[in-house]
Amino acid sequence: MFEYDGALYGPPTVEVLERVRFSVIKLAMQGPRLFKVAAELFHIDTRDLLVEAEFADDPIAHEEWCRSMLTAGNT
Asked: How far apart are CA 43 and CA 66, in angstroms?
């Protein structure tokens, strides 16, 4: 399902791929319906995937989300 870089909005840099991967993870954690949405957007336009995951406006939003998830897991 995610065998290649998808419909990336830029070159497949480490930063771009990380944002895309975290977007898929965030949506997948919200259930199978949003995982399907993530898979579709991955192949259509990853910019829309970032928007759906709420990571589009801030290039480090995925890092902040990850930190919040790790902190929540330690309580």
From this structure: 23
pLDDT in tens, 16-73: 889 999 999 999 999 999 999 999 999 999 999 999 999 999 999 999 999 999 998 7
Alpha-carbon Rg for the chain, nearest whole angstrom, is 12
pTM of the complete model: 0.86
User: What's the rounded Cα separation, in Å, for the pair 72 and 13?
Assistant: 29
- Does 6 map to a domain? no
Q: Is residue 4 part of a domain?
A: no
Number of H helices, E strands in the chain: 4, 0
What the block records as the tokens of 1 is 């399902």
Q: Classify residue 5: in a domain, yes or no.
A: no
The answer to whether residues 20 and 42 touch, using CB atoms and an 8 Å cutoff, is yes
CA distance 46 to 50: 6
